[in-house]
């Protein structure tokens, strides 16, 4: 895991001499199957550059993005967003899952990443989210087979979620509408906004685009819940130990 004591950068801005400790921070997990593009995405988000030569992530890698909460308003404040890129496969042994569970403590938000060319990676997001959200009531992480999904329960989920579909560039033009219909169901299930992009092209997250706006709104929400929400049930950590079950899947 990367040492967190380094000079901060958000890709465009280098903040010389501004150490990690000087700003408040939130922890956002980046979850999804191996190979969907999590590391590529995190690199793009934090370094504003395409990851040249991605290699398989072992354990967890952390990178940091600087985010201006409520940018352009009198309440504007700069925060660090720690992006925890958790490697591993959802089908792995329970020992691997319980090792992964150490990364799920004190989570403020989750980015669920799926590969738009790979339906299985989309289906597995139900399992990834359950593994992270229920980890305190299931230490081994073995939670769900394929069972019941209840969108109402995700509506009550205190941890904000964002759905990101990668490899949009690999979807032929004539298939894009079908794919977008499918991902819309998924984002509804998770009560999350969705972004579909090509992680090898920074244009998809360029300032002023609707994707950049959605991203900024998501980080604002994560910060809001962590630092500006008084209701204890809205705080991090799933103190009520709520369980999530699936009742339906929108895949064949
Ligand atoms: N064309 C295209 N390739 C992508 C995209 N996102 C990622 N890739 C490629 O997909 C491969 C896997 O990307 P990674 O970022 O290493 O995937 P990962 O999810 O971090 O994988 P693990 O570390 O094994 O969990 C790499 O060759 C990337 O260049 C995308 O949006 N479009
Ligand atoms: Mg990786």
Automatic annotation (TrEMBL):
Keyword GTP-binding recorded: yes
Keywords: GTP-binding, Nucleotide-binding
UniProt GO molecular function: GTP binding
Keyword Ribosomal protein (UniProt): no
Any Pfam family the entry gives: Roc
SUPFAM superfamilies assigned: P-loop containing nucleoside triphosphate hydrolases
InterPro entries: P-loop_NTPase (IPR027417)
Assigned protein family: Belongs to the small GTPase superfamily. Rab family.
Known role: Required for KRAS signaling regulation and modulation of cell proliferation. Regulator of KRAS prenylation, and probably prenylation of other small GTPases. Required for lymphocyte development and function. Not required for myeloid cell development.
Name of this chain's protein: Rab-like protein 3
Native organism: Myripristis murdjan
GN (gene name): RABL3
């Amino acid at each position: 895991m990367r040492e967190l004591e380094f000079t901060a950068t958000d890709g465009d801005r280098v903040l010389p001499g501004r150490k990690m400790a000087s700003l408040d921070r939130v922890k956002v997990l980046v979850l999804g199957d191996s190979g969907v593009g999590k590391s590529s995405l995190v690199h793009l988000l934090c370094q504003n550059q395409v990851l040249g030569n991605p290699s398989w992530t072992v354990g967890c890698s952390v990178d940091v993005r600087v985010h201006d909460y409520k940018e352009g308003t009198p309440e504007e404040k700069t925060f660090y967003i720690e992006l925890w890129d958790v490697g591993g496969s959802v089908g792995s042994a329970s020992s691997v899952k319980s090792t992964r569970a150490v990364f799920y403590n004190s989570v403020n938000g989750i980015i669920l990443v799926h590969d738009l060319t790979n339906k299985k990676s989309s289906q597995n997001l139900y399992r990834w989210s359950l593994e992270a959200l229920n980890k305190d009531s299931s230490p081994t992480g073995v939670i769900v087979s394929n069972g019941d999904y209840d969108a109402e329960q995700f509506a009550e989920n205190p941890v904000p979620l964002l759905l990101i579909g990668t490899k949009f560039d690999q979807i032929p033009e004539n298939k894009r509408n079908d794919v977008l219909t499918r991902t819309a169901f998924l984002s509804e299930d998770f009560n999350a906004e969705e972004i579909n992009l090509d992680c090898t092209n920074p244009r998809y997250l360029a300032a002023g685009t609707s994707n950049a706006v959605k991203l900024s709104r998501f980080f604002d929400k994560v910060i809001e819940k962590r630092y500006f929400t008084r209701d204890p049930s809205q705080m991090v950590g799933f103190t009520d130990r709520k369980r999530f079950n699936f009742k339906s899947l929108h895949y064949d």
